[in-house]
Design a protein that fits this description.
α4 links the parallel β2 and β3. This protein has a 7-stranded mixed sheet, with helices on both faces. The chain has a 3-stranded antiparallel sheet with strand order 7-6-11, with no helix packed on it. α3 crosses α7. Helices cover about 40% and strands about 15% of the residues. It has about 400 residues and is of the alpha/beta class. It is built from 13 helices and 13 strands. The structure holds pyridoxal-5'-phosphate. The site of pyridoxal-5'-phosphate has 14 residues, from α3 and α4.
């Protein structure tokens, strides 16, 4: 039992526990089947229904459904009028798509460092990165905790910059009691299966601004001003393409899934927070492992539960601990490799060493399993495996 599975011992559990997994209910299946039998597979009534329900849940005036979180970011970057030569400030510790949307528009990504406690964009470094060409700031709510929106927004206002919040992790999170979705001029969500709510692939842009909502609606539909259903209702064939857009539409059967997923979301959110409390309590006794701080004025949605290893207390590096936990059948992961370290960004001339907090965090980060369907046994297995592995490598 105490012999590490990595060294031939018995693993903590016999079945693999992934770091994230979707919850699909019978209601979800019924809802998708009924949409599949309806006259509309895409551009039908379920899209508007889902958008209205999503807007209501987040408190935003408008929600526009698109085909992925990446499409949502691309649409927001277009809505912010990011163009060739414009600079956009993006945290270095995120998924590549946050930065890529700037490149789609021909803009330049200016990577910023993160705060050491929350690993969110550090508001104190933003102003030193602003130049005459800066057009926008994109914040990321790392692991599900809202960024420092008041501080970032006041910088954006002072310098006349667009503010986009990549809330791929933070659907259902709150900041000062306010729901994520209304804290920036545009907020983007991902509906990928590892996220809190899924439509398979999918994304949403929320905004309170009618013009931005209209822009995103056109952007997802080739830049055309009316959709197929509107023309059908108006008994008209005429349409106009006024911008260069894309086909980033989300189908009706996916929106049908999104609707039933929205109803179950509160349960998933509660369960994730409960699991986080269990982890927090257990790991208070394990000094080799440090969870990310959640600030008192916000509620995280706990898309992830990242921890940092205290490597000074350990005789092993992160890679060995990662392999040892996986050998115990605990599917740990790492979020994220700093985006400027990827070969594509390196080829654009970015060099390591300019984001000391994000880069040091990356060397020590592990994401522990976190999803609503984990039961008490699963949670305890993760805790036991962490104690087992880290005690074995204790200096
Ligand atoms: C998941 C994710 C995305 C991209 O979402 P997709 O739906 O996979 O395109 C973007 N940013 C962050 C931070 C994410 O976690």
């Amino acid at each position: 039992m105490n012999q590490l599975a990595l060294a031939g011992g018995t693993p903590i559990r016999s079945q693999w526990l992934p770091y994230g997994r979707q919850s699909i209910s019978d209601d979800d299946v019924a809802s998708v089947c009924s949409a599949l039998r309806s006259p509309w597979l895409t551009t039908g009534p379920k899209v508007a229904e889902f958008e209205a329900a999503f807007a209501e849940r987040t408190g935003a005036r408008f929600a526009v459904a698109v085909s992925s979180g990446t499409a949502a970011l691309h649409a927001a970057a277009s809505g912010a009028r990011i163009r060739a030569g414009d600079e956009v400030i993006v945290p270095a510790l995120t998924f590549a798509a946050t930065a890529n949307c700037v490149r789609y528009q021909g803009g330049t990504v200016v990577f910023a460092d993160v705060r050491d406690d929350t690993l969110n964009l550090d508001p104190n470094v933003i102003e030193s990165l602003i130049t005459a060409r800066t057009r926008a700031i994109i914040t990321v709510d790392y692991a599900g905790q809202p960024s420092d929106m008041d501080e970032v927004r006041s910088i954006a206002v002072r310098h006349d910059l667009q503010l986009i919040e990549d809330a791929s992790h933070s659907l259902g999170a709150t900041y000062d009691g306010v729901c994520v979705g209304t804290l920036a001029s545009m907020t983007t969500f991902s509906l990928h299966p590892v996220k809190l709510l899924t439509t398979g692939e999918g994304g949403v842009v929320t905004t309170d601004d009618q013009d931005l909502a209209d822009h995103v609606r056109r952007f997802r539909n080739h830049g055309i001003t009316t959709d197929h259903r509107q023309r059908e209702e108006a008994e008209s064939w005429h349409y106009e393409m006024i911008d260069l857009g894309y086909n980033y539409r989300l189908t009706d059967f996916q929106c049908a899934l999104g609707l039933t997923q929205l109803f179950q979301m509160e349960h998933s959110l509660r369960r994730r927070r409960e699991i986080a409390r269990h982890y927090d309590g257990a790991f208070a006794e394990l000094p080799e492992l440090k969870p990310v701080t959640v600030l008192p004025d916000r509620e995280s949605a706990f898309h992830l539960y990242p921890v940092r290893l205290d490597l000074k207390r350990l005789s092993a590096d992160r890679k060995t601990v990662f392999r040892a936990l996986r050998a115990e059948n605990i599917g740990v992961n790492v979020h994220y490799i700093p985006v400027p370290w990827h070969p594509y960004y390196m080829s654009l001339g970015y060099q390591r060493g300019q984001w000391p907090v994000a880069e040091a965090a990356y060397e020590r980060l592990l994401s522990l399993p976190m999803f609503a369907q984990m039961d008490g046994r699963d949670v305890q297995d993760v805790i036991d495996a962490c104690f087992k592995v880290l005690s074995a490598f204790r200096r």
